[in-house]
Write a structure and sequence with these properties.
By secondary structure, the chain is mostly helical. The chain has helices at residues 2-22, 29-33, 46-77. Pfam families: SecG.
Length: 78
């Protein structure tokens, strides 16, 4: 069971990193320092961004459940 949760944790971690990198930058911050501030308003739709937000939250919830489950199983096994 611990192995299965660890595999889910690794997969969800990689997916979470990729999904976060797919998000569009919203502020000035560091993204505008490297040329991210030169975006046009036509890059992407609001619906796609909403769906990306939902998928990111769902994968994040899976990630949290996998961490808590792994921690509990490791604690109970010791």
């Amino acid at each position: 069971m611990i192995l299965a949760l660890q595999i889910v944790l690794i997969i969800s971690s990689v997916l979470l990193v990729l999904l976060i990198l797919l998000h569009r930058g919203r502020g000035g911050g560091l993204s505008s320092l490297f040329g991210g501030g030169m975006q046009s308003s036509l890059s992407g739709s609001a619906r796609a961004e909403k769906n990306l937000d939902r998928i990111t939250l769902f994968v994040g919830a899976i990630w949290v459940v996998a961490i808590v489950g792994t921690g509990l199983l490791v604690k109970l096994g010791s």
